[in-house]
Amino acid sequence: MAMTKLTNLVNPEVMADMISATLPKAIKFSPIATIDTTLVGVPGDTITVPKYAYIGDAEDVAEGVQMGTTVLTTSTTQVTVKKAGKAIELTDESVLSGYGDPMGEGTRQLGMSIANKIDNDCVDALYGASLIKATSANISYDGIIDAIDLFEDENDSNTAKVMFIAPKQATTIRKDENFLSKDKYPLDVVMDGVIGSIGGAQVIISKKVKLVKYEKDNTNGTITIVSDETTEDSTSKHLATIQPNTLEVLTVGDKVSAVSADFYANPIVVVDVNDPNTDTTADNFATTQSALTIYMKRDVMVEDDRDILAKTTVVSADEHYGVALSNESKVVLAEFGA
Fold first, then answer.
1. Which of 193, 319, 334, 337 has its CA at a distance of 20 to 30 angstroms from the CA of residue 24?
2. What is the 3-state secondary structure (H, E, C) of the chain?
3. Nearest to 53 by CA among 270, 332, 275, 271
4. Average pLDDT over residues 310-315
5. What span, in angstroms and rounded, lies between the C-alpha atoms of 212 and 279?
6. What is the biggest distance separating any 2 CA atoms in the chain, rounded to whole angstroms?
7. How confident is the model at residue 107, as a pLDDT?
């Protein structure tokens, strides 16, 4: 008599293919990023990312005169490949009972877990932008326009942009007379979650937008980042406590100070890859560089292991990747009062 065994239901190769196929679409920030797979199979754990400067417009050349040459210049940034992973443990009873589809649900959630981690790193990369418009006022049309103007684009009327706001900012922006709600003014959205547009930017509500309460201050900081083994007190805090409310990347031993007034840091991102400037030397970036680049080092790997005493199966999935802010000219941080 044929018997259904757990090994018939757990197929890591099939699960890996399923997660790999759905991962790019599951990464919410993929519409504003380039997903680069050229590093698959290439050795090394550090990526040197080139940023090519424009060589300049063509010049008049007289008859019989030799053309001069221009040096193609670049700047570089380094991205370290990291590994993100998650594992689930399933009992034989849960898989074989026929109630629901725990294996299918587990596969779906493993893919979702990795995608969310990559999304978090995309947000962290956006917060490394150097173009910042700071204001103590609450979010408003005027403030958004001031921030968008930092792009200094010559003709940006058709340049798609997205702006990420915190849920607690949504009511204020919805009530702004310049806000065009998607339910009243349909538009071609560039990302899931768009609720409307203001100042030429499509608005997306995201809990990943940071409410900034602290700033890195290793000279005069009053709070020290301590290891998780150390008990927290008023002057010693764990990294997980402070990092979500700080723009800078912190490590154990760093010091922070409280900001004078809490504020939201709202990334505004140019989605179009093409450079909107007539003079493409304006921002010194190649016209084809998107704001973010997600480097996939290896396809998702899924492995399983049996606990023969507990009669459970552990399934793990991991992805090797790196995220870079590859074009700073396409990101502005608009800071608004909380």
1. 334
2. CCCCCHHHHCCHHHHHHHHHHHHHHHCCCHHHEEEECCCCCCCCCEEEEEEECCCCCCCCCCCCCCCCCCCCCEEEEEEECEEEEEEEEEEHHHHHCCCCCHHHHHHHHHHHHHHHHHHHHHHHHHCCCCEEEECCCCCCHHHHHHHHHHHCCCCCCCCCEEEEECHHHHHHHHCCCCCEECCCCCCCCCCCCEEEEECCEEEEECCCCEEEEEEECCCCCCEEEECCCCCCECCEEEHHHHHHHECCCCCCCCEEEEEEEEEEEEEEEECCCCCCCCCCCCCCCCCCCCCEEEEEEEEEEEEEEEECCCCEEEEEEEEEEEEEECCHHHEEEEEEEC
3. 275
4. 84
5. 36
6. 89
7. 79
Integer Cα distance of 215 and 132 in angstroms: 15
Which tens digit of pLDDT belongs to each residue from 139-174? Answer: 999 999 999 888 876 655 567 889 999 999 999 999
Closest by CA to 126, choosing from 314, 307, 296, 290, is: 290
